[in-house]
């Protein structure tokens, strides 16, 4: 069976600037890939292309076998995407927003209470999103990505702005879902990679510098932090 | 169609979740009423019809419709929600149509709330209610046309002020195209263009509705005009993706 996420030679240029430069990898069901890199490394741009929002300058991306450009609607049906900053409509209540997402996706509205339950949003379900803290907003975005129980999850900084308890909950949630899905999370938090990811991809200046298990990356006794800095500050390529 | 409906429903509720709906409707009603009774000389004409009212509607909508449409896409871009919306499993045209539909129904509600004028003329005399109905149909079609143009312009920018100004300018071009100033100017110099300008004039096609004539060419004009700008909106959205 093919991998749920297949990215081949994906590149994106903005004018003369190359944000993503020939990125290739694939993710199978059961894998949780931590997508690591400094700010501006091309993480969000890669995820946007994978979600079909940004057309690539070159290369292809497929979700569950559907090309995100030529067969975008079918690809996006299989995808739960949390964009950077978890944008939502501020004037809507949590429940109204999730019901809207469910309607557009054509899923049963019964999925809404379920998604609110696993992201612990029930207590604020009738509050306008603009009145919520950053952590709650992030969870609203997460809930909308989980509504339709997608095979593929692409989460851009899912734990940003959450307090330690909430981070722990989200990590538990990801670990619990992992066997049934292919998941990519981008993060700056290296401990998160050791905590939830089965694989780490380190990217800088638009190129993949390392693609391996967290254990293999730290096999030589260095901690992930040191490996990350060595790679992204330009020590050289590590396979 | 399900997704279109879901988007339209959210957008429509959005007008009422913010003061937009109240401000728009109140200002529209106040201006429409005031202009009809003062500049329009509603009583002085001593005729039971709504010609003064219908005369002002396209010019009122010229300013008020871009105020509605300026946020449609510009705000989605600014908030970043466009990324969330366009990564749902829908084609861009479904989002375009949903947003336009909600705004159109909203304008229709605002127009419907001018019903006291209809009651007034029926109280005072015996108007041709068929012509009044045709006039209202014309108003709704003008609103739809302006909305489509304004929404397309809004998709070009994340700045709402720019979206508003360009929207008003765009609507004005098509409202004024048939006016004597423009058509005389063009007829004197380039007669062919004078005809073309009148053909593209929203006001010109609206005129027949006010006279109580619902003619197929006018209906086709509004359908084509609106369809063209909705299509342009979807194209602009694709072209400006992620920009």
Indicate the topology.
The complex is a heterodimer of chains A (239) and B (243).
Chain A: E1 5-14, E2 17-27, E3 32-36, H1 43-50, E4 58-63, E5 66-67, H2 72-77, E6 79-82, H3 94-105, H4 111-118, H5 134-146, E7 152-156, H6 164-177, E8 182-187, H7 190-196, E9 199-204, E10 207-212, H8 214-217, H9 224-232
Parallel strand pairs in A: 3-8, 3-9, 6-7, 7-8
Antiparallel strand pairs in A: 1-2, 1-4, 4-5, 9-10
Helix pairs in contact in A: 3-4, 4-5
Chain B: H1 2-17, H2 20-37, H3 51-79, H4 81-86, H5 92-112, H6 115-124, H7 129-154, H8 160-176, H9 180-189, H10 191-199, H11 202-210, H12 216-239
What's this entry about, in short?
The complex is a heterodimer of chains A (239) and B (243). Chain A has 239 residues and is of the alpha/beta class. Helices cover 34% and strands 26% of the residues of chain A.
Biggest sheet descriptor of chain B: none
Indicate the proportion of strand residues of chain A.
25-35%
Structural class of chain B: mainly alpha
Largest sheet of chain A, in brief, is:
6 strands, mixed
Number of helices of chain B: 12
Cα-atom Rg of chain A, whole angstroms?
Answer: 18 Å
What does the radius of gyration of chain B come to? 19 Å
Helix content of chain B: over 70%
Q: Which ranges of chain A are low-confidence, i.e. pLDDT below 50, for 5 or more consecutive residues?
A: none
Question: How would you sum up the global shape of chain A?
Answer: globular
């Amino acid at each position: 069976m093919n991998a749920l996420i297949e990215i081949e030679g994906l590149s994106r240029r903005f004018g003369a600037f190359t944000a993503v430069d020939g990125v290739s990898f694939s993710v199978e069901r059961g894998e949780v890939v931590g997508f690591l890199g400094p700010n501006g490394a091309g993480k969000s741009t890669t995820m946007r292309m994978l979600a079909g929002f940004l057309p690539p300058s070159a290369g292809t991306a497929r979700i569950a076998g559907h090309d995100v450009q030529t067969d975008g609607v079918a690809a996006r049906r299989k995808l739960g995407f949390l964009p950077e900053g978890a944008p939502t409509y501020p004037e809507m209540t949590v429940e109204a927003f999730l019901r809207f997402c469910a309607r557009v996706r054509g899923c049963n509205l019964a999925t809404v209470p379920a998604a609110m339950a696993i992201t612990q949003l029930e207590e604020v379900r009738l509050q306008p999103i603009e009145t919520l803290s950053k952590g709650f907003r992030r969870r609203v975005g997460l809930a909308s990505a989980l509504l339709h129980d997608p095979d593929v999850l692409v989460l851009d900084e899912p734990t940003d702005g959450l307090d330690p308890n909430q981070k722990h909950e989200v990590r538990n949630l990801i670990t619990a879902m992992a066997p049934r899905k292919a998941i990519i999370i981008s993060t700056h938090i290296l401990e998160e990679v050791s905590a939830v990811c089965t694989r780490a991809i380190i990217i800088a200046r638009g190129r993949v510098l390392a693609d391996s298990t967290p254990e293999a990356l730290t096999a030589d006794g260095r901690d992930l932090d040191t490996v990350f800095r060595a790679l992204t500050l330009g020590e050289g390529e590590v396979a | 169609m399900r997704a279109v409906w879901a988007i339209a429903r959210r957008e429509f509720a959005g007008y009422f979740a913010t003061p937009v709906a109240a401000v728009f409707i109140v200002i529209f009603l106040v201006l429409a009423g005031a202009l009809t009774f003062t500049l329009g000389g509603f009583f002085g004409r001593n005729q039971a019809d709504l010609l003064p009212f219908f005369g002002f509607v396209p010019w009122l909508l010229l300013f008020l419709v871009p105020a509605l449409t300026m946020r449609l896409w510009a705000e989605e871009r600014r908030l970043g929600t466009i990324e969330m919306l366009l990564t749902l499993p829908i084609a861009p045209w479904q989002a375009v149509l949903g947003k336009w539909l909600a705004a159109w129904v909203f304008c229709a509600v605002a127009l419907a709330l001018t019903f006291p004028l209809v009651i007034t003329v029926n109280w005072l005399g015996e108007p041709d209610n068929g012509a009044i109905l045709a006039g209202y149909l014309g108003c709704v079609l003008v609103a739809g046309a302006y909305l489509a143009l304004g929404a397309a312009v809004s998709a070009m920018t994340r700045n709402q002020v720019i979206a508003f100004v360009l929207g008003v300018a765009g609507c004005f071009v098509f409202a004024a195209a048939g006016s004597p100033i423009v058509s005389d100017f063009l007829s004197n110099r380039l007669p062919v263009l004078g005809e073309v300008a009148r053909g593209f004039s929203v006001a010109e096609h609206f005129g027949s509705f006010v006279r109580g004539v619902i003619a197929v060419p006018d209906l086709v004009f509004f359908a084509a005009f609106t369809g063209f700008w909705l299509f342009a909106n979807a194209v602009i959205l694709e072209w400006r993706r992620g920009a």
